[in-house]
Structures are given as structure tokens and as C-alpha cells.
Amino acid sequence: MNVHIDKQKVAKHFNQAAQTYDEYAVIHRRMAWQILQQLKESRWAGRRVLEIGCGTGFLTRLILENYPQSQVTAVDLAEKMILIAKQNSDPLKKVEWIVGDIEKMEWSENSFDLIVSNAAVHWLQQPCVLLKEWYRALSPNGKIIISTFGPNTLQELAYLFQTVELEMGLVPELHILPFYAVKDWEKAFQEAGYQQIVSKERWLREQYPSVREFLYTIKSTGENFSNPRQNIITSSRVLRQVMNRYAFSYQVRKQVYATYHFIHIAADKLTP
């Protein structure tokens, strides 16, 4: 990814969102349920699991409830997310909670039978490099399943920011994190050595009572991204214009809507 990911800022956003995340992460829970469905369809029967970006532990709990034999290593960048995950989880279940940057971690060969990640890999600076490392860490016949957002996610918001900034004579800034297309993910999985790659895409228009509630939902799930060069006065003017236009342009039945583009990919490490 050509965009620099400031991991300290990402951790700060998710730490700030830790208390509100579960209330507002409706989209993320849907994505997690899809991962579980793919896992069940694959008839996976392993034991050792690595979860990347575990957040408050929703997917962690789904896996342990459905596969009680599992031993999960759950990693997240945000300490407060891990703290809530621990509080929400059965202490008798076999989970190792790790706070840290997954891009700085190394694993021994054949460490895991399953690697999962729900709505997290778009925050990685070099996900294609990590796919190779995860392939090495998978056991023979191991499986990886990830979910992430596609490039059409929040397209209405991205369009309005660009339009308003151009009309104001400003150089458009990046307000929405760029997301890889499914073809890019498929290529990365192939180059990393995975086999039996299955990708699924889905689009959803989610409705919100107001633009303010929509933007608050993004912030409350830690998904807010910005790469600001404008001063606070200019950025406030831009935001006001965007919010006013959004309420007028993307309204249905007295609510506003936003597009989400989901990508799910499952693949295997087959023995020769």
C-alpha cells in the first residue's frame, strides 16, 4: 500500500473506540459471522488458531463456542481492545492475548492450523509480505480466512470530500483509507503460495438516522482515517460542507445511507 499507516495513530483511534466499539460494530459482526460460515463450510477440524486484529474478541468467542478444542492466539494493536476482550471472554477458554503490531511478529513454521482476521488487514502496511510469513507459519493443510473492506466502501463520503475540496480550491486529501480490490488480494494469495483460493464479494447500503450519527459510528468503531495537511479552520469548513451535501444527496426515507463493500477470502496451504 502506498499510503503510510501511522500505527500509533491507529492504536490511539482503536483505544479511544474501545468502550463504544461493541455498540456500533454492526458491520464488523456481520463480517465475523461470514468467516464462521466459511469455516463451517470447509469442515475445518484443527486446533491452533492465530487471530489477527481480534478487537474486543467477538470472532474469538465465535470460534471458541463452535470449536471448543481450539487454542487461540489473539493479537491486537490496541491495549484497551484486548482488555475488553479479556473481560468479555471465559477465563477458562484457551486464549493467549497479545498486544502488539502483527507486522513486527515472527512465528515458527507450522505454528497454526488456522489464521483468521476480521476487518483488520486493511490497517497493515505490507499485507502481501505478511501473507508469505503467515503461509510459513501455517501447518500443512492449514487454512487462512480473512475479511476486509473493498474499494467501494464509503464511496459517497470519499466523493463528497474530493468534490468539496476541489470546489474550494484545495488539493484533495485522503479521508478514506484506500482498500485493495479482490483481484489484488487473489494475486497476493497466489504469489504467497496458497491454493484453493476462494473469494467472495458483497455490497451493502447501511442506513443511519443522520450524517452526524453515520460519522460517529465510524469514529466509534475506530475506523476513522485521515492524512491531514489542512489547518483546523479549513478542515472544519470542508467537513460542514460535506455533511450538508451528504444529507441532501444520499437520503432515503428520511435517513442517510453509506455503501460498504465486503471482501472475504479463504485459502489453504496444501501438502505437496
Give the overall shape: globular
Write the CATH fold name of the domain at 7-154 and 177-203 and 261-269.
Answer: Rossmann fold
- Low-confidence spans: none
Strand content of the residues, in percent? Answer: 15-25%
DSSP helical segment count: 10
CATH superfamily of the domain at 7-154 and 177-203 and 261-269: Vaccinia Virus protein VP39
Radius of gyration: 19 Å
Q: What is the level-2 CATH architecture name of the domain at 7-154 and 177-203 and 261-269?
A: 3-Layer(aba) Sandwich
The separation of the N and C termini measures 32 Å
Proportion in helices: 40-55%
Mean of residue pLDDT values = 94
CATH first level of the domain at 7-154 and 177-203 and 261-269: Alpha Beta
SSE string, helices as H and strands as E:
HHHEHEHEEHEHHEHHEE
Number of β-strand runs? 8
Give the biggest sheet: 8 strands, mixed
Structural class: alpha/beta
Structural write-up:
With 272 residues, the protein is an alpha/beta fold. The chain has a domain of 184 residues: Rossmann fold (3-Layer(aba) Sandwich), CATH 3.40.50.150. Helix content is 42%, strand content 24%. Strands 1, 2, 3, 4, 5, 6, 7 and 8 form an eight-stranded mixed β-sheet that branches. A hairpin with a 2-residue loop joins strand 7 and strand 8. Helix 6 crosses helix 8 and helix 7 packs across helix 10. It is globular, with a radius of gyration of 19 Å. The two termini are 32 Å apart. 38% of the residues are buried. The model has no long low-confidence stretch (mean pLDDT 94).
